[in-house]
Amino acid sequence: MIWVQRKITIPAKHRGFHLITNLIEQEIEELGRIDIGVLHVFIQHTSASLTINENADPDVQVDLESSINAIAPENFPYIHTLEGPDDMPAHVKASLLGASVSVPICKGRLLLGTWQGIYLAEHRDRAGGRNLVLTLQGTMD
Question: Among 2, 16, 17, 101, which one has the highest count of C-beta atoms within 10 angstroms of its own C-beta?
Fold first, then answer.
């Protein structure tokens, strides 16, 4: 059994959904040696989130952003407004989507579906880099 944990920083991104699967795979070189296991990805922020969704058509990213904005609009009468009009909606969106994803591993590969990818959902207009904790657990072949 092997456990590996890495903390990485994703450079600042504009508001929207950003495919980060390849970046995550590149950061965990031990992934290729895992016979069976799990990769857990956790974001250390409350105004961005992680999700798994379609990675083939870029229109999906646009539609996800439009949909999540309709669910948590900036013009809602929020009480927490000290950090700008996009802050509280970002907290709501992050709560809806979640702070982590877990992906099974088999024979050195993430077992994502054919059209699935891991996304960083950036909910702020001007956010800084985002910290992720990658935790790999598995057996080696």
Answer: 17
Nearest to 93 by CA among 47, 45, 126: 47
pLDDT of residue 141: 74
Q: Is domain 2-140 given the CATH code 3.40.50.300 in the classification?
A: no
The residue among 45, 6, 35, 30 whose CA lies nearest residue 129 is 45
The pTM for the full model equals: 0.96
CB 103 within 8 A of CB 37: no
Reading the block at residue 80, the tokens are: 């927490």
Spell out the domain ranges in the chain: 2-140
